[in-house]
Amino acid sequence: MHVFITGGTGLVGSAVVTELLAAGHTATVLARSDASAHAVTTAGATPLRGALQDLDVLRAAAEEADGVIHLAFANDFSTAGAVARSVAEETAAVTTLGDALVGSDRPLVTVSGTPWIPGRPSVESDSLPTDGPVGGRGRTVNAILALASSGVRTSAIRLPRTVHDEGRGGFAGLLTDIARSTGISGYPGDGTQRWPAVHARDAAVLFRLALEHAPAGTAWHAVADEGDQVRDIATVIGRRLDLPVQPVPDEAFGPLGPIFATDQPASSDHTRTVLGWEPRHPSLLDDLERIRP
Question: Where in this chain does the record put each NAD-dependent epimerase/dehydratase domain (predicted)?
Fold first, then answer.
């Protein structure tokens, strides 16, 4: 299968490209810069120069592909306005990709976060939130999954709050970056809230399985660790960086503060049973032990 990929040079995307090529697929990867294009070529895929805003480029690439995996997101969480712009940009892009595949029965795999459900781990049948700082992403994913009725084999991989590799990535990576800049390994609330996690290379396997096998209109959880307490995450970060560990106000985390403070464990039992996905790489807490001081 020849696959068009957006976001194929990021932490998750680069792992997805490697996984697809190892499985015998070929890939064209959107590349915004010469450096990204070089990374794509080095990985063995074909770069396509362009950005997520280049909707004509996206449409043409999707029309020529046997399947599409969408991963790109600006990841600018500095202000509420920046988050809104990132969501709007992604919505326009993935809508264009979906429109290009209508009536083709080809796969379109998109991405969202796992939902949070009070009192229990979320499961694949739970609805995505459609309000709050990133509620627009939930509305967009719902619209894309609805294209199953228009001849697109859509599926959505729900990524947990931390997708990691060697201590980098996701919410835990943001905590690490904040700790380096402030000199404190801080956490919101009392730190007992739980965040789910997955290793990037395990997530990549699930993207491939969804591309190859997922029925139209389905959602899957890329969750290896159901939920680590944020205080435990901050403790490992503090030990690795030799910094004090302590609670800090939610406001210190900007627009993501309310999400950081939310208990949000997630299950992947259905995903593992139906698609045969089995995580094999290090857990988040083990991986954080690789953080360099």
Answer: 3-94
Of 220, 197, 194, 196, nearest to 208 by C-alpha is 220
pTM of the model: 0.94
**2-162+198-225 CATH choice from 3.40.50.150, 2.60.40.420, 3.40.50.300, 3.40.50.720:** 3.40.50.720
pLDDT of residue 80: 65
| Type of residue numbered 94 | V
- Each residue of 170-226: pLDDT tens digit? 999 999 999 999 999 999 999 999 999 999 999 999 999 999 999 999 999 999 999
The domain ranges of the chain are 2-162+198-225, 164-195+227-265+283-288
